[in-house]
Design goal:
about 90 residues; Serine Threonine Protein Phosphatase 5, Tetratricopeptide repeat; 5 helices; about 75% helix; globular
C-alpha cells in the first residue's frame, strides 16, 4: 500500500510525528493489516527513543501476527536496553 511506503519514508527521515498521525488514522480505519501498522508505530517510537512505546507496539503487532517482523525488532530493542541498563540489575 502506497500510504505505508510514505509512512516508512517519514520515519526514516525523522518526521515521526507526521508518521504517527498517519498510522493512528490507519488504526481507526478499516485497514486490515493492523499488525503492520503497529510494527511501523514501534519503529517510529524507537526512532524517537521512546523504548516503552516501541516495545508495546511491537507486542501488539506480534499478538496480531506471531510471524511479524516486530518479533525481531522487539528482541533488538530488548538487547539494546539490556546492554545500556546493566546497572539496573545490579542494585
Amino acid at each position: 500500500m502506497e500510504q505505508l511506503i510514505t509512512i516508512k519514508e517519514l520515519i526514516s527521515q525523522g518526521d515521526v510525528t507526521q508518521a504517527l498521525e498517519q498510522l493512528d488514522q490507519l488504526l481507526e480505519s478499516d485497514f486490515s493489516a493492523k499488525d503492520v501498522v503497529y510494527y511501523l508505530r514501534g519503529n517510529a517510537y524507537r526512532k524517537q527513543g521512546n523504548w516503552q512505546q516501541a516495545l508495546n507496539n511491537y507486542q501488539y503487532a506480534m499478538d496480531l501476527n506471531p510471524e511479524s517482523p516486530a518479533r525481531e525488532a522487539r528482541r533488538m530493542v530488548m538487547d539494546i536496553l539490556n546492554f545500556y541498563n546493566k546497572d539496573m540489575y545490579n542494585q
